[in-house]
Recover the amino acids of this structure.
């Protein structure tokens, strides 16, 4: 049952969003120039960003609980293990710049999303207790796939904007990234909490029954299924984006024609 305060907050947020759109459409100098959304790769790239970062943000939120509650790691151990995903994301993002140019943007993005999905599937089928190796492999796959997907998507989004819209485009992309990860936290937590309700005892975690462990695993798997659906949806705009980046000469020509 949704509380009154939460319902009123949602109504206020929706009203503010509608008011912002109406004001922007009639403003002489809008904060976000509407012509930026006429750039098709910009729209599609941000849509990919949204669908990729929702599961990424949700996993960053849920994984510590999964490692501590279900797999029995201490907070210190869970934190050290999660650095595997973070380092994989950074390493893959940097290495993406050295990928051969013959690998098309669509193939690169699609493969990165599939790699993320494979890592999530491995997480879903892991049992407790078990070897740490499959867990590390899944974290590397999720981190590496997300690193390639994010860096390539940024190339797509920013590489097709005219020079006078790059600043606004960067700001919009940053907001999409933040919004997607926040949505991931909210949606993954909502799915998880519909299956498993956290006990009110502050001493929780010292001992967990087999029934609790099974419920925690089921809740985590439901959240992963939701994340996999998001990644599946990301494949739809991926195969509609341009397969090559626009050159600077083409960008200047299009900007001159538009002016």
């Amino acid at each position: 049952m949704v509380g009154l305060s939460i319902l009123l907050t949602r109504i206020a947020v929706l009203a503010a969003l509608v008011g912002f759109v109406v004001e922007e459409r009639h403003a002489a100098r809008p904060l976000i120039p509407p012509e930026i959304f006429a750039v098709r790769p910009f729209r599609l790239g941000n849509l990919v960003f949204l669908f990729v970062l929702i599961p990424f943000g949700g996993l960053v939120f849920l994984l510590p609980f999964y490692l501590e509650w279900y797999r029995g790691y201490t907070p210190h151990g869970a934190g050290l293990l999660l650095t595997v995903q973070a380092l994989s994301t950074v390493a893959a993002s940097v290495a993406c710049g050295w990928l051969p140019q013959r690998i098309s943007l669509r193939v690169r993005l699609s493969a990165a999303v599939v790699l993320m999905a494979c890592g999530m599937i491995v997480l879903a089928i892991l049992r407790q207790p078990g070897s740490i190796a499959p867990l590390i492999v899944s974290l590397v796959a999720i981190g590496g796939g997300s690193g390639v997907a994010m860096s390539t998507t940024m190339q797509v989004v920013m590489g097709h904007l005219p020079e006078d819209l790059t600043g606004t485009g960067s700001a919009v992309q940053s907001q999409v990234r933040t919004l997607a990860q926040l949505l991931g936290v909210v949606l993954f937590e909502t799915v998880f909490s519909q299956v498993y309700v956290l006990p009110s005892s502050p001493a929780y975690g010292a001992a967990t029954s087999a029934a609790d462990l099974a419920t925690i695993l089921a809740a985590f798997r439901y959240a992963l299924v939701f994340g996999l659906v998001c990644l599946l949806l990301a494949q739809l705009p991926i195969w509609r984006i341009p397969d090559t980046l626009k050159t600077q000469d083409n960008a200047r020509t299009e900007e001159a024609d538009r002016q």
Q: What stands out?
A: The chain has one domain: 42-251. The radius of gyration is 21 Å. Residues 40-70 form the longest helix (31 residues).
